[in-house]
Design brief:
144 residues, mainly beta, Immunoglobulin-like
Length: 144
């Protein structure tokens, strides 16, 4: 009996491990179906400057928000941006402020999260929030 319980425990642990490995977490799943962000390679200039990027969102409703985050080559956060329906267009240019003295040259990453809101299935239901992570964008800042 003891051996059979041990085998069952081992099988449960193995199944749990496989299930956790096979399921992508929301933070790792991304898409291009609902929009994208992009930035060209640019020169890292002396002092503090604004570096441009571009965004496009395709939400399923007119009530949406887009949040963007900039990470330096070391993975440290260096800036953020936010855009919302009614105040910002669904596509357009944007910038991040970067100071040369606080970063190293290299490959920067922009991560973006799109959220939109739809009415619930019943008139008394709460609003439903939908969240999609857009594909990360990479660009280089090089020294002149």
């Amino acid at each position: 009996m003891h051996q059979q319980a041990g085998r069952c425990l081992l099988a449960a642990v193995a199944l749990g491990t496989l299930a956790s490995v096979g399921v992508p977490t929301p933070s790792l799943a991304w898409t291009t179906r609902f929009g994208h962000v992009a930035a060209p390679d640019q020169v890292l200039r002396p002092d503090c400057h604004r570096y441009r990027y571009h965004y496009v969102v395709k939400p399923r409703s007119g009530d949406w928000t887009l949040e963007t985050w900039l990470y330096d080559p070391r993975g440290r956060p260096r800036g953020s941006g936010d855009f919302a329906a009614g105040a910002d267009p669904r596509r357009g240019p944007a910038t991040f402020g970067v100071c040369r003295s606080t970063v190293v040259r290299g490959r920067f990453t922009i991560r973006a999260r799109l959220r939109w809101y739809t009415p619930g299935p019943l008139p008394i239901s709460p609003t439903v929030r939908h969240t999609r992570w857009l594909r990360p964008a990479h660009f280089r800042l090089t020294r002149p």
